[in-house]
Structure prediction request, 384 residues.
Amino acid sequence: MYAPSGVTTSPELPVPAQMKAWVLGDPDQLLLRDKPTPVPGRAEVLVRIDAVAICATDLEVIHSGSPASIGGGSPFNRNFTPGHEYMGTVAALGPAVDEFAIGQRVSVEIHAGCGQCKRCRQGMYTSCLNYGKPEKNHRANGFTTDGGFAEYAINHINTLALVPDTMSDAEATLVVTAGTSMYGLTELGGLVAGESVVVIGPGPIGLLAVAVAKALGADPVILTGTRNARLAIGKALGADRVINIAEEDAVAVVKQLTGGIGADYVVECAGTEATINQAIHMANRGGKICLAAFPHDPVTTDIAHLVKNNIYVYGIRGEGRSATHRAMALMAEKRFDATKIHTHTFPLADLPTALRYARDRVEDAIKVVVTTREAAVVASAAAE
Ligand SMILES: [Zn+2]
Ligand SMILES: [Zn+2]
Prediction:
């Protein structure tokens, strides 16, 4: 049985000594293995994972390794478990933890900083200078430490937010994505009410950036993309105007919608050279651009336009500055319905099928959720 010293467990929620976990073998190879159930340390809890959403970055990690790294090197064949957008139930408490109780449902965020470096001291724990050093207590679950494609995972208490009873497991997994969108808006200045916001790219982060910006009072909120079905979901999440860039000149339309001057904030979630240049040309003088997607190759951009127009550019990584907590607050209040992006559900044992749905966008999949609690394949809120 699972009874590590100093760790509190409860007979109500017995924890096995061994758990099932998917581990990354060679590129594109995931293996279902038994692993020892991990042990929480100081300020940490053991989370029983109830649901985990698949992210494009998981597909990237499983295929090419980056941006995950274990011990500073490749994550392949290191007994590493990916997956980072999960939620679950507190199942055991590390030494002296009294901030959470066994049995509470929690959402998570990916990063726990070391708490001792300059960036962590500034609250920028997603940019921890000890990134990837678990011996310094840094965690990025699913990237540098074990993640959520398993029955259990370790989380620092600072990464947890309570899930209200009115929120489903699947919806709670989306807090990680909504938190990333929220962090982008936070870095742009956070004062979004009444400002014009363009979101480029209707992937999960872009769609929830629309929802968060609207919930925070941005006006107008404009979404650009190429697929009409995705743009329609953006409208349902609060976009005042959507632009199909295959049919309209995005920069010209944004200028026209903003009195000829351009947008106050642009959140770039597509990561292509063309869309990054659109972002630069649709921001107004003194405007701000958040780059939230990873371009695959170096891009050529109109830097002179940025300089001449005093435009600020921010790169964001992850869901920093406790943005998941703010996203959870909005979602708990039902200020937007993140489940509009949840399209498919599979059991944990069918992870390879779930990954294929996400990768190949089978049946127009957006967010595919894997659950340890439901055996049946459930298709919910299918995108139209
Ligand atoms: Zn993700
Ligand atoms: Zn740090």
